[in-house]
């Protein structure tokens, strides 16, 4: 009989040790869960900021191209004529108003 008792105690010891290891792993997982969630949030923030940086870099390139275009006197004159309605002496400037949208006709 003593052989069967040691066998039961061996099984109970292994079960207790297994449960202890599982409890420790669960504790470690719960301990690090906030860190993992914070890491995930920070990665999402970084991706969002990277997209904003790409947009702002493109804007900077367009503004830089516009600035370099302003170094050309012909471009400056064209823009002054288009946007500010400037004209040379003796020239006539004609303005066209944008068409006013008409409301759709509904039948009753």
Task: Please describe what this structure looks like.
- This protein is mainly α and 108 residues long.
- It has a domain at 17-84.
- It is built from 2 helices and no strands.
- The longest helix has 68 residues, at 2-69.
- It is elongated.
- The model has no long low-confidence stretch (mean pLDDT 88).
Provide a brief overview of the structure.
Helix content is 74%, strand content 0%. The chain has helices at residues 2-69, 73-84. The mean pLDDT is 88.
SSE topology sketch:
Elements: H1 2-69, H2 73-84
Task: Tell me the overall shape.
Answer: elongated
Q: How confident overall, as mean pLDDT?
A: 88
- Spell out the helices and strands N to C: HH
Number of helices: 2
Structural class: mainly alpha
Report the β-strand fraction as a percent range. under 5%
Radius of gyration: 38 Å
Low-confidence sequence ranges: none
**Topology, number of strands:** 0
Percentage of residues assigned to helices: over 70%
Sheet with the most strands, sense and barrel status: none
Kindly list the characteristics that best describe this protein.
108 residues, mainly alpha, 2 helices, 0% strand
């Amino acid at each position: 009989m003593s052989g069967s008792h040691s066998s039961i105690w061996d099984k109970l010891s292994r079960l207790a040790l297994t449960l202890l290891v599982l409890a420790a792993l669960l504790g470690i997982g719960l301990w690090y869960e906030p860190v993992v969630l914070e890491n995930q949030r920070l990665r999402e923030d970084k991706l969002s900021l990277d997209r904003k940086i790409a947009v702002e870099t493109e804007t900077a390139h367009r503004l830089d191209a516009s600035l370099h275009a302003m170094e050309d006197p012909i471009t400056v004159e064209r823009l002054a004529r288009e946007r500010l309605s400037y004209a040379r002496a003796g020239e006539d400037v004609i303005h066209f108003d944008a068409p006013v949208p008409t409301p759709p006709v509904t039948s009753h």
